[in-house]
Amino acid sequence: MSLILTEIKNxxxxxxxxxxxxxxxxxxxxxxxxxxxxxxxxxxxxVACIFLQGAGEKALCAGGDVRQLYxxxxxxxxxxxxxxxxxxxxxxxLEYQVxxxxxxxxxxxxxxxxxxxxGGGIGIMTGASHRIVTEKSKLAMPEITIGLYPDVGxxxxxxxxxxxxxxxLGLTGARLDGADCKFLGxxxxxxxxxxxxxxxxxxxxxxxxxxxxxxxxxxxxxxSRQVSIPESHAAAHQTFIQQFEKAETLEKFREILSSYPxxxxxxxxxxxxxxxxxxxxxxxxxxxLQQGENxxxxxxxxxxxxxxxxxxxxxxxxxxxxALLVDKDHSPKWHPATLDDITGEWIDSYxxxxxxxWKVNF
Length: 362
Known about the structure:
10 strands
């Protein structure tokens, strides 16, 4: 079974991530297929724009196939735990190259961000020129819960969010709906899920002799005007989020989070994720976003590749996946166990360069 389905209708190249049972999770073979299609269509005269979607109605993409990464880490630990598992290196490096390709693609890419869009799914979506969410969109970067960190360019897009939303979302994995994504700049259009066929029909009838980007924008603007966007939960919590602008350290972030007096369900959910997440992840996320604030896109993906490889040789990533997806006991044994147990030297070790002279092939 092909993990990527493609068809071309009137110069609209339609790509479908085709692993419905795994909520279209990104595996290395799927990423290879996606990379090949994007490369082929980049210069093809048969394709003027791309429409990217997930198979089924539940998800665009629920993230990377971390279970396979876990297997590679465990196998490598039996040989030499200090070395990067080759499958992990291959996965992250090609995933980030695909993400960068989408960010810099010369033709319009429409991403149908319907249903669950998490982790690697957000990486595919955020770089697209035309990003659509619906009333059923559910986005999150919950990597702190598995001992990882928000990657796939999150160093870039979390830092571009207003106020302190970026650091808050990174450290709590807070869930976002379509209205939140529009407010935070993660999406360009809020459109009813029932309007997908209308979009595809309009693309099929479009005149591509004009500027393709303007043609796509005109179609999506017209359709998006037919729906009003509901209130954003994220926007409604601006006063709360603004408190974290004063958080110059992780300790200060934790203090503000725990002591905020007017807690509600949205805030309590964030507190729960932060408290249950990997202490090492919390520290590296805080430093990641501080250090990466002024990096360009190439530097972001290079730094994230190094950090992801470090996570594969540090203990918490494999332990988080074990607890959530392998043994499913939901009781990870983090190492170190608490935020206060972590030293500066330990966090420094995550940011030590480990990928040698290799550079991302941008």
